[in-house]
């Protein structure tokens, strides 16, 4: 188990290894380090820096929870900004307090396939004794925290209605956004297997998977 305070200073080291040449092999990824760095940065309110190790497109898809129109979400994805990702971690810090602290620890639990990419399961034990499972995904541009695989239990139930509205919308923007959500099905399937979530949360994720899958025809 790695304490957060040790890992925060290693961000530059992790990012130095995240080049376009990475092949996604196990030696390219330090999943404990990635999660510990994120937690350390978030505990210090350094939310923008945390976006360097975040799947930002997933954060932007979660704007559906706020009622943001499909065309605005697509524009944000194309702009490749960090504001939405930074806001995600700020909200995470607020909802996780006081469990989030330098006393928290992380430990690797194994690997899982997420579509064509490799995922790494990491247990996060908060200072209040609660345990959460995070998932780090190896991508062509480096490791990122997979927000859907890690945190879907907290938002799946609320995302069902926005997805249903997209399914009832015949616009090109709605179809494009649904296509992006289809790309997150593998992450949601991993989230549904998290042993730390409740049966209700698991069922909400399964229901969300079913709704998104309708977009595949």
* Relative strand content: 15-25%
Principal-axes geometry comes out as globular
Order of helices and strands: EHHHHHHHEEEEHHHH
Going by helix content, strand content and strand pairing, the class is: alpha+beta
**Straight-line N-to-C gap:** 44 Å
Q: What do the pLDDT scores average to? A: 86
| Secondary structure tally, helices | 11
Uncertain segments are 1-26
Strands in their spatial order, largest beta sheet: 1-2-3-4-5
Report on the structure:
With 217 residues, the protein is an alpha+beta fold. Helix content is 51%, strand content 16%. Strands 1-2-3-4-5 form a five-stranded antiparallel β-sheet. A hairpin with a 5-residue loop joins strand 3 and strand 4. The relative contact order is 0.15.
At a glance:
The chain is of the alpha+beta class. It contains eleven helices and five strands; from the N terminus they run βαααααααββββαααα.
């Amino acid at each position: 188990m790695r304490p957060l305070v040790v890992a925060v200073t290693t961000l530059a080291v992790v990012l130095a290894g995240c080049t376009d040449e990475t092949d996604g092999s196990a030696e390219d990824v330090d999943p404990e380090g990635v999660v510990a760095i994120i937690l350390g940065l978030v505990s210090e309110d350094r939310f923008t820096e945390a976006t360097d190790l975040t799947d930002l497109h997933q954060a932007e898809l979660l704007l559906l929870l706020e009622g943001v129109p499909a065309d605005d979400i697509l524009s944000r994805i194309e702009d490749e900004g960090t504001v939405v990702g930074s806001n995600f971690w700020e909200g995470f810090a607020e909802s996780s307090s006081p469990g989030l602290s330098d006393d928290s620890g992380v430990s690797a639990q194994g690997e899982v396939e997420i579509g064509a990419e490799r995922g790494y399961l990491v247990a996060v034990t908060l200072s209040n004794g609660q345990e959460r499972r995070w998932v780090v995904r190896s991508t062509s541009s480096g490791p990122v925290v997979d927000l859907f695989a890690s945190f879907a239990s907290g938002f799946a139930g609320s995302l069902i209605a926005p997805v249903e509205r997209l399914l009832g919308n015949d616009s090109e923007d709605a179809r494009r956004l649904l296509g992006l959500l289809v790309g997150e099905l593998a992450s949601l399937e991993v989230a549904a297997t998290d042993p730390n979530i409740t049966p209700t949360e698991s069922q909400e994720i399964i229901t969300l998977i079913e709704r998104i899958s309708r977009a595949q025809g």
